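User: My instructor asked us to take a sequence, write out its structure as tokens, and then describe one feature of it. I'm not sure where to start. Here is the sequence I was given:
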Amino acid sequence: MDIVEISKVLSNKTRVNILKWLKNPELNFPPHQDIDHFDDGVCVGFIQDKTGLSQSTISTYLNSMQNAGLVIPTRHGKWTYYRRNESVIKTYIEALKTSL
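Assistant: Let's start with the prediction itself. The structure tokens for your sequence are:
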């Protein structure tokens, strides 16, 4: 886990908002049509709709969040779903507490 890399990712308000929304996906996104739970996360299309940004921008954001370890992707057919990586988020918060 790289504190600086994660901090760079979190320097963008939309990426922070995505993590906030993914914390309680059932409150922030509509139900999935093909899957009746949020166990694997939220479909990229729902995230894009909520942000109002282009698909390419959201893909870039989610890719940087994945590279930093903040989110975990899961494929269902042609769709990718993202959920928070709670262990990395917890480790990051603890590292900030102890190192700063």
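For the description part of your assignment, you could build on this observation: Residues 13 and 19 are 10 Å apart (CA to CA). Try explaining in your own words what that tells you about the chain.
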